[in-house]
Each structure stands twice: as C-alpha cells, then as structure tokens.
Design goal:
two-stranded parallel ribbon; Rossmann fold; 2 domains; about 350 residues; Tyrosyl-Transfer RNA Synthetase; binds tryptophanyl-5'AMP
C-alpha cells in the first residue's frame, strides 16, 4: 500500500535547547512544512525516563514544555497549518507503546547505544522507562503512521528500531491485517529517517569529539537558543580550535574535529556547502573566522531568542496551541488505535 506521506518528530523538554537541536532537527522541521503534513511533538513522557534531577521536577517540566513549543514557533513552525502538541495529552502514545512492547525483543533494546550512554555504569539503577525509551519513540511515530522523521544523527539507531517494530508487527499480524482490508499486509509504514544538512551532528565547543548536549556540565560547550549576543560571542571566542589556519578544501577538515565543527555550523547557518565556506575563509586565521561566525550566529539566533521570550511570557497562549494541536493529533491517533485494536483482537465498543 502506498502510505500518505506524513512527517513526525519530537524534542524532549529537558531544558537548554541548543544549536545542535536547532540545526540537526528544528531547521528541517521548518523546511518540511512546505512539502508535507507535519506533526511536531514535545515529548514530555520521554523526559520522565531520566532521573528527576535531569528534567527538574514538575514545574520545570511544564516550563520547559512551553519553552520547546515557543522555540518551534519562533523558528517558523506554523501550528495552524501543522500540528504542535505535547505527547502526554494524547493517550494513544502510551497505549500503542504497550502493544509494541510485546512486539519488540529484549535483544533489540540491549543493542541501543543511547541507553548504554545514559544509564552509564549504574545500569541496575536506570529506570525501566529509559530502557523502553525507543519503543515509546516508535509508538510516537507510528501512532500517526508517519513516513518521514527528521532527526539528528544520534537518533539513527532508534529509527532503525522503529522500522524493525513496524516490520515485525506487520509480519506477526499479517493475516489479521489482510483480514481487515489491508491487502498487502502492511498496516504500519516503515518510517524513513531524514538526517540531512551540514550539521546533523553538532559537536561540543569544548571538545570536537563529543556531541553538543543539553546535559554537558559546561555551558561553554554549547550555544543555547536563549543565549544573548554577548554570551554567544564569548562562547564562540572561547571555542577550542587548533593552531593551524583554516584549510581551503573539505579534505583538510578531516583530522581536525573542532575546525570541522565550526565550519559545519557556519555552513548550516548560512545555508551554504562547507566547500563554499572554505573557499571564503580557507588560509585565514581562526580569529577572523570566529568573528564572522559570531555575527552570523547572532543574526540568525537573536530573533528566535526574542520571539521565544515573548511567547513564554504568555503561557496561556502557548497552552492553547498545545491543546488545539493535541485535539487534532488525537483524531488521527484514534483511527490508528481502533484499527490496531481490531488487528490485535482486542474487543471494543463500536
Ligand atoms: P532530543 O530532545 O534529545 O533531541 C531533539 C533533536 O535534536 C537532535 N540533536 C542533535 N542534532 C545535531 N547535533 C546535536 N548535537 C544534537 N543533539 C540533539 C536529535 O537528534 C533530535 O532530532 N529521541 C528524541 C525525541 C523523540 C523523537 C520521537 C524524535 C521522541 N520521540 C519520535 C523523532 C520521532 C530525542 O532524543 O530528542
């Protein structure tokens, strides 16, 4: 069956939205609005998988949920044409996750590198939710039978798991799926990751071999979407580099992770290929390149920060957007849940 193309993606409300989230994911969310029906979700249920100190407790969770929503809108997502909502308002996410828990295999989850990284050495003490995180993520996507998922490079393995779950569900319930009128036996699409652009993996400003992350102890490792111009300038000027001038060709960036990262950020923000950026700055010193990068970052990010500030000052307005989005998401989710319940054999009111 040809599935109707639909985009779904999510961002956790765990604080400190940064340039990596913006360039790796949100910029593509904005672009895909032109060609697809899109659903963008603030995944508050996923935030709970980490220890409470990480997500900050109930009032922080609510504040951060509104802040991510504000970032979506400030970046250019249109919540009227598309759907913006928070995950916990649509119960289908948890319901479908349960069914998928019974489809996914323990061996599959044991291979997830993000669980290993986040659980660290004290794996016994990690929440069951953290272990199950990728199954809920598959439910998020497939509840809307989404076909395209824009994400950063770090989510690739989770997307592969979503495809495995969809495939196994279709196989396990193939006869029932056909019996319910889906003649090719495919109820769930196999969602395609959409990982694209020169900044699919933005690295820490302090260490070019580490991903830029919300949880890094040093605020100097990342540029937050809410940073003001002076803070952005300070962070970029202090960013780690090496003593060589910038290379003139991309090949010259390969052994130089910090240089590669800064050039990638410049390329992504200016929407130009890295090779072109190097044609302009190659052979020059980092100090002048950094000045240009500060200017570009401030020009691109300041209007977003200002709009976010304006929006979070009016939580009633943000909540109304989330409630309206959830109402529309629920309508689509209800269709999927009914069909899924029928396929599985759950008796329900008709
Ligand atoms: P989260 O909140 O950790 O990250 C949100 C998005 O930002 C991307 N990202 C990066 N991209 C480039 N460079 C970086 N340094 C960087 N850091 C983060 C992430 O890849 C992500 O696209 N599991 C998801 C949330 C989620 C989801 C979903 C996504 C839940 N359900 C369903 C897609 C579909 C996550 O880690 O979000």
């Amino acid at each position: 069956m040809a599935f109707v193309e639909r985009v779904f993606s999510g961002v956790q409300p765990t604080g400190n939205l940064h340039l990596g989230n913006y360039l790796g994911a949100i910029v593509n969310f904005v672009k895909m609005q032109e060609t697809h029906n899109c659903i963008y979700c603030v995944v508050d249920m996923h935030a709970l998988t980490q220890p409470v100190e990480v997500w900050g407790g109930p009032s922080e969770l609510a504040r951060n949920t509104r802040e991510v929503t504000a970032a979506f809108i400030a970046a250019g997502i249109d919540p009227k044409k598309h759907i913006v909502f928070n995950q916990s308002q649509v119960s289908g996410h948890a319901e479908l996750a349960w069914i998928f828990n019974c489809v996914a295999r323990v061996g599959w989850l044991n291979r997830m590198t993000q669980f290993k990284e986040k659980a660290g050495k004290d794996r016994e003490n990690a929440s069951v939710g953290l272990y199950d995180y990728p199954v809920l993520m598959a439910a998020d996507i497939l509840l809307y039978r989404a076909t395209h998922v824009p994400v950063g490079d770090d989510q690739k393995q989770h997307l592969e798991l979503s495809r495995d779950i969809a495939q196994k569900f279709n196989n396990d319930f193939g006869d029932s799926i056909r019996g319910h009128g889906y003649n090719d036996g495919m109820y769930f699409p196999l969602p395609e990751p959409f990982i694209t652009g020169p900044a699919t993996r933005v690295m820490s400003l302090r260490d070019g071999t580490k991903k830029m992350s919300k949880s890094d102890a040093s605020d100097y490792s990342r540029i937050n979407l809410t940073d003001d111009a002076d803070t952005i300038a300070q962070k970029i000027r202090k960013a780690k580099t090496d003593p060589e001038p910038l290379p003139s060709e991309e090949k010259g960036l390969e052994p130089r992770p910090e240089a590669d990262n800064l050039v990638g950020i410049y390329a992504a923000l200016s929407e130009r290929p890295k090779a072109e950026v190097l044609r302009e700055f190659g052979g020059g010193q980092f100090s002048s390149f950094k000045n240009a990068l500060v200017e570009l970052c401030v020009t691109k990010l300041s209007p977003i920060a200002a709009e976010m500030k304006r929006l979070v000052a009016d939580p009633g307005h943000v909540d109304a957007i989330l409630i309206d989005g959830a109402d529309r998401a629920r309508t689509i989710a209800a269709e999927t849940m009914k069909a899924t319940q029928d396929i599985v054999g759950f008796v329900r009111k008709r």
